[in-house]
Structures are given as structure tokens and as C-alpha cells.
Specification:
The complex is a heterodimer. By secondary structure, chain A is mostly helical. Helix content of chain A is 66%, strand content 0%. In chain A, helix 6 packs parallel to helix 9. The longest helix of chain A is centred in the last third of the chain and has 51 residues. Chain B is built from 6 helices and no strands. Classes of the chains: A mainly alpha, B mainly alpha. Chains A and B meet through helix 1, helix 3, helix 6 and helix 9 of A and helix 2 of B.
Chain lengths: 316, 193
């Protein structure tokens, strides 16, 4: 019990220090910081008496990125560590703490949406004060970006695993259209638990402040899919392919928002048709090119013949 | 270095390969790939005009070496998952026009173009070698080896150009300066876009 209380107080302190650092860089009014830190310490004293909030996984079918709040979040985070790096063995960086809070908050998104309430609830399950939500923007930007980044990482791992199976000869190499279809479907299925609130998330991702991050996440996800699909283009095709797949992904995502068919079968059919369109388009492009080359060769041949005929006549 | 207390900045989900400086390698491979691609097109343009003249075989041989260079950079590009420059279609046309245009000025004109371009490229490769050695010569050993070898071959082309009376071209210094300015601009753009 004493260790737990000590842990909580340490967590509270870390949060307070993290909060102070954030204050230095963002324009949070100093008064709020003082109130926040006082509230944090008071609340963390309260919380140690409260029973730990049971993770309400019975209520939601959300697989909730598979983390227990205690576990360290997987996936890459910037190799940045908080101030005063070398300390006790369970010291975590500010970055890692934020990751943990956001991961815990995802559970509450279906109920509260992508909001500070969800983050506050998530912080509560970690035994932190609800004021921890103040670490983040009130529109839930960081929560959404964290979720997207998480999904992309899961997709990468899935594709890498499949690639390994193919390399070991335990699975067949899929044709490109099937591969793309499956990859996009797998990625979109990760939205299903949060589908009600996803339109809200999409609009937040389009805020000018978030566009660099959301665009970067989108492009790296599409690049990943093409990489595992075996794309090795080093010319302009590199761009064409990614542009086409991005369009397919975005339109399918929008269709999914409106889809009320059982198991989203309308969406998957839409996806199949779009991928087929893209394949047909690339075949047509190849055909047009070879026809064009044949035409040019024919014209050159005709020109040479005419000029030869001309010189023959001139010589005679 | 991210500032202390910076908010979460999720960007790419791609994990860095063994701690290499990915943005630096990206730039290096992208611009070198664009350079070799452009050089290929320049020689193609020169061959289109002077292919059947006495310098044809010389140009053909230099062109073959550039084709090898391009092949190597295509491999490196896939291995390091580097994005090619958007300007490739533009370099395609511009390179061919430069090659054909300089060849229309005669054999010496073509050689002058070769000298100018190869001098730019050698200097550019030397800068990259310096940068990589400053970063970490051990980590980038393979890449350094490739760039050093290519720099030596480009230097050879430069010398071949001089041997074939490049400097006797009318308005040689004007031509050379203009071409080198173009090369500098191409390098600047291809690193970034």
C-alpha cells in the first residue's frame, strides 16, 4: 500500500514537472498551471483511496489497442527523453507517460468522443488526476494522432509478418490487387470500434495545425503498403502509385462512414471495385504507351522510305 | 533535437534502420539518383546527334558507365526506401535537350558540356563524401565506397572531355559557367523536391 502511494505521488510529481515543462513551451496561462499542480497533488492523494477503475472492456467490444495501462506502449516513439534522464529504474519520459495516458483514453472514446473527457477518464484509470487532460489540446488532436500512428504501426507489423510467411514459403504471394485490397481493409477495420466518432476525428485531422502530422502519417502508411506489396519503382510511377492508393484509401474511408450494411460489406465491395479500376487504368496506360511507340516507329519508317525515294529520284 | 516538453509529434510510423541518419541518406540518394538519371539523358542526347561521328564510340563508352551508375542508384534507392525526385520527368527532357543542344554546337561543344557537367558532379560527390565521413565513416562504409568509385569515374569522363579539345569550343567559359549554374540549381532542387 505504501509503495503504491509512493508510486502515485511520484507519478503526480512527474506529471507536475512535465506540466511545468509544457508550460514553458506552450502558451498555458501560469495561473492555470499552479491550480493544476495543486489539484494534481490533491487529487492523487484522493485517488489512492479509490478502487482502481475497472477497465470497462466488458461494455465495449473495442479491442483497445491490446494494452493494459501498466504496460509500456509499443511502437516507435521519438528517442527523446524528459529532463533529468538518468534516474530510478522506473523513471519514464514525458513522452512515454503521454503515450500511456492516450492509450488508456482510447477505451473511453466510443462514449465520450475524441475529447478531453476521454483523456481524463483514461488518466483516471492510470491512477492519475483528471487534470492530466490539461497536458493535451482540448480538441483531442493528440489522441487522434496517437490512435492513427498506433494503427499504422499495427498495420506495418501485420504486413511484415505476412511477408515473413511468404519468404519462409508458408504462404502464397498474393497478386497485387488482392494484396492492396487486404491491406486497406485490414487498416480500415481498425476503425470499426470507433466508427461512430470517426467523422469527428477526420475533421480534427484536417485542422491546419494538424495537417502536417496527419499528412505525414497518411503518406508513410501508403508508402508502407506499397513497399510490402513489392513496389520497386524509382521513376515517376513511385508517385502515381501512391497517389492512386491514397485516393482509394480516402474514398473507401468516407464510404465506410456512411455504410450501414452488415459487416460493412458495401464498403469492401466498393474497395474491390476501386482497386480493380486502378489495375485496369494501369493496364490501359501500358497499352497506350506501346501503341504510341509502334505508331512513332511506323512514322519514322515511312519518313525514311520517302526520303530514300526522293534521293533515288534526284540521283536519276 | 526536439525541444524539452514538446507536445507529442507523431510523424512517420517507419522505424529507423539501425540508427542511420535517414533524412541525410534520403537526400544523398535522391539527388545522386537524379544526377545519374540526368547524365544518362545528356549522353543520350549527344549520341542522338553525334552517334555516327568520330567521337561516337567515346560518348557511347561514357554513356555505358553512366548506365551502370544509374543501375546502382536504383538498387540503393529501393534498399533504403528513398523517394525519387518529382522532377524526374523534367530532368528527362532537360537532360536530353542539353545533350543534343551541346552536340549541335559540334564535337567540341559536346565535350565542353561533358567537362562542365562532370566537374560539377565530381565536386558534388566530394561534398557528399566529406559529409558522410563527418557523420560516421564506419556506418556508411558501403555508400562511401560507391560514391568514391563513381567520383573517380566522373573525373575520368571530365579528363576525356578535356583531351578531346573541349576548351577549344567557341565561348567555352560562358558555356561552362551556364551549364554549371544549371547543375547547381538541379542539385539544390532534387535534394529537396
Amino acid at each position: 500500500k505504501m509503495a503504491a502511494a509512493g508510486g502515485l505521488r511520484r507519478a503526480g510529481w512527474r506529471l507536475w514537472r512535465a506540466r511545468r515543462a509544457v508550460v514553458r513551451c506552450q502558451q498555458y496561462p501560469p495561473l492555470r498551471a499552479l491550480q493544476g499542480s495543486a489539484a494534481l497533488r490533491a487529487a492523487s492523494d484522493e485517488h489512492k483511496k479509490e478502487p482502481w477503475a475497472s477497465s470497462s472492456q466488458q461494455h465495449f467490444e473495442s479491442p483497445s489497442p491490446g494494452h493494459q495501462p501498466e504496460e509500456k506502449p509499443q511502437g516507435p516513439h521519438p528517442s527523446y527523453t524528459g529532463q533529468g534522464g538518468q534516474q530510478s529504474e522506473d523513471y519514464e519520459s514525458e513522452e512515454q507517460l503521454q503515450h500511456r495516458i492516450l492509450t488508456a483514453a482510447l477505451e473511453f472514446v466510443p462514449e465520450h468522443g475524441w475529447t478531453a473527457e476521454a483523456i481524463a477518464e483514461g488518466a483516471k484509470t492510470l491512477g492519475l488526476s483528471v487534470a492530466a487532460a490539461g497536458l493535451f489540446h482540448s480538441d483531442g488532436s493528440e489522441l487522434i494522432l496517437h490512435f492513427v500512428s498506433d494503427c499504422n504501426t499495427k498495420l506495418s507489423e501485420l504486413l511484415k509478418k505476412e511477408q515473413k510467411l511468404v519468404q519462409l514459403g508458408e504462404a502464397e504471394k498474393k497478386p497485387i490487387d488482392e494484396f492492396l485490397r487486404d491491406a486497406v481493409e485490414a487498416r480500415l477495420r481498425m476503425l470499426i470500434p470507433y466508427i461512430e466518432k470517426w467523422p469527428q476525428a477526420l475533421s480534427v485531422l484536417l485542422l491546419p495545425r494538424n495537417i502536417p502530422s496527419s499528412l505525414s502519417l497518411l503518406t508513410s502508411m501508403i508508402d508502407d503498403i506499397w513497399h510490402y506489396a513489392g513496389d520497386q519503382s524509382t521513376d515517376f510511377n513511385w508517385y502515381t502509385r501512391r497517389a492512386v492508393l491514397t485516393a482509394i484509401y480516402n474514398t473507401t474511408e468516407l464510404v465506410m462512414m456512411q455504410d450501414s450494411s452488415p459487416g460493412f460489406e458495401d464498403t469492401w465491395r466498393f474497395l474491390e471495385n476501386r482497386v480493380a479500376d486502378a489495375m485496369a487504368m494501369s493496364n490501359t496506360a501500358t497499352q497506350v504507351q506501346s501503341t504510341g511507340e509502334a505508331v512513332v516507329q511506323g512514322l519514322m519508317g515511312a519518313a525514311v522510305t520517302v526520303s530514300n525515294a526522293g534521293t533515288c529520284r534526284a540521283v536519276r | 533535437v526536439p525541444g524539452a516538453g514538446a507536445a507529442l509529434r507523431p510523424c512517420s510510423s517507419r522505424v529507423a534502420q539501425d540508427g542511420i541518419n535517414q533524412p541525410l541518406i534520403d537526400r544523398i540518394i535522391r539527388v545522386d539518383h537524379a544526377g545519374e538519371y540526368g547524365a544518362n539523358r545528356i549522353y543520350a542526347g549527344q549520341m542522338a546527334v553525334l552517334g555516327r561521328s568520330s567521337v561516337g564510340p567515346v560518348i557511347q563508352q561514357m554513356w555505358n558507365q553512366e548506365k551502370n551508375h544509374l543501375k546502382k542508384f536504383n538498387e540503393l534507392m529501393v534498399a533504403y526506401r528513398v523517394r525519387p525526385t518529382v522532377l524526374l520527368p523534367f530532368w528527362n527532357v532537360a537532360g536530353f535537350v542539353l545533350g543534343a543542344g551541346s552536340a549541335l554546337l559540334g564535337k567540341k561543344g559536346a565535350m565542353a558540356c561533358t567537362v562542365a557537367v562532370e566537374e560539377s558532379i565530381s565536386e558534388h560527390y566530394n561534398n557528399q563524401i566529406r559529409t558522410l565521413i563527418e557523420e560516421d565513416p564506419e556506418k556508411y562504409k558501403e555508400l562511401l565506397q560507391v560514391i568514391k568509385q563513381f567520383r573517380d569515374e566522373e573525373q575520368e569522363h571530365h579528363d576525356i572531355g578535356l583531351e578531346h579539345d573541349a576548351e577549344a569550343t567557341p565561348a567555352y567559359s560562358v558555356l561552362k559557367t551556364a551549364i554549371q549554374l544549371g547543375c547547381k540549381a538541379a542539385i539544390f532542387l532534387s535534394e529537396r523536391i
